């Protein structure tokens, strides 16, 4: 399956904060926050669009998480189909 489970509303197990082990809350896709702002993201998007099936299989979705306990913002890669 080639989609991000978080984006499709299918919950993953709780992600934990690497600082305090608190519960991380999903704030949504990072693309929604940075849009056409980050050159890093442009590279990632171009890689997806170049039609290379191998890179497409490695597709991932980056989500922004916030720790409920300490408020730390963390970006986590959600790999498709896993
Ligand atoms: Zn996603
Ligand atoms: Zn924390």
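Sequence proposed for the structure above (82 residues):
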């Amino acid at each position: 399956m080639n989609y991000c489970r978080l984006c499709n509303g299918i919950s993953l197990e709780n992600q934990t904060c690497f600082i305090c082990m608190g519960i991380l809350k999903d704030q949504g896709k990072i693309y929604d926050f940075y849009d056409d702002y980050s050159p890093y993201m442009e590279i990632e998007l171009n890689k997806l669009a170049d039609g290379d099936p191998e890179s497409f299989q490695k597709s991932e979705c980056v989500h922004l998480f916030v720790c409920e306990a300490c408020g730390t913002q963390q970006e986590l890669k959600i790999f498709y189909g896993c």
